[in-house]
Amino acid sequence: ERLPVLEYTNEQTWTMADSGSMKFCPNCGTKFGSHSRICKGCGTLYDSTFQPKLHHELHPGQNSFGCNGRFVSSRMTAMRWANWFIFTLTMALFYIFDAPYLWRNVTPAAVIVPTLIILSAAFNLLMVSLTDPGIIPRGIKQQCETDENGDLPAFKKITVKGSELQLKYCKTCEMYRPPRSSHCRICDNCVERFDHHCPWTGQCIGGRNYRFFFWYVWSKFFVCLSVGGMAVLHLV
Q1: How far is the C-alpha of 220 from the C-alpha of 136, rounded, in Å?
Q2: Helices 109-130, 78-93: inter-axial angle, 10-degree rounding
Q3: Residues β-bridged to residue 175
Q4: Is 125 left (phi over 0), alpha (psi -120 to 50) or beta?
Q5: Please, are residues 15 and 132 in contact by the beta-carbon 8 Å criterion?
């Protein structure tokens, strides 16, 4: 059984995060059985020391993986670390200069409430930076009618629940990508429900991490209001 070619049924899409601990042949990408030594796709015979590769180890996109493929992020991390540095420095200044005064002379709530919002912002930033945004695995050259140059059609029409949809073929990922997905030039992947690539989080924003990005933006906004307001209160 080869790497799945996407089927657009039930409005679901197979993505990198669904691969779990599945292992694949590094030669042709065929899924390996738990005790098999012969690849059913290319017929390669491996010795007893061979360990099939996990899906993220064969992934050709511009991503970095951690914790055995459970975490994924972009390789462009300079602005993400700058974001963390600015965030940490600002919070450190608040706790060094403003928090002691507010705790003693105003009310402990003036420190506790901003702290809870800060923790929420840090958690959502961490999650949006390390969560699979919905990377769609590369396909295999699909068996379709080709044009006179031997290329696959740029578009294909399908019907889902009575509605006709037009899918665009991605030459890099070798598949017809699902609706609302797009190819990120930075990460070199097609992403499900792609919104944009955020350099400040070092990650694409898509269907699987959009909720973390949404709450990160709002929590960061309330961090600015609460910390800024408490700093003004201290100065007054």
Answers
A1: 29
A2: 170
A3: 170
A4: alpha
A5: yes
Query: How much of the chain exceeds pLDDT 90, in percent?
Result: 18
Closest CA to 169 of 160, 184, 182: 182
**Amino acid letter at 53?**
K
DSSP code of 38? B
Catalytic residue among 39, 170, 173, 198: 198
Phi and psi at residue 4, to the nearest 5° = -60, 135
Catalytic (active site) residue 198: yes
Taking only the tens place, the pLDDT of each residue in 205-234 is 998 899 999 999 999 999 998 888 888 888
CA 138 and chain centroid, separation: 15
C-alpha–C-alpha distance, residues 163 and 178, integer Å:
14
Report pLDDT for 150.
61
Total-model pTM: 0.70
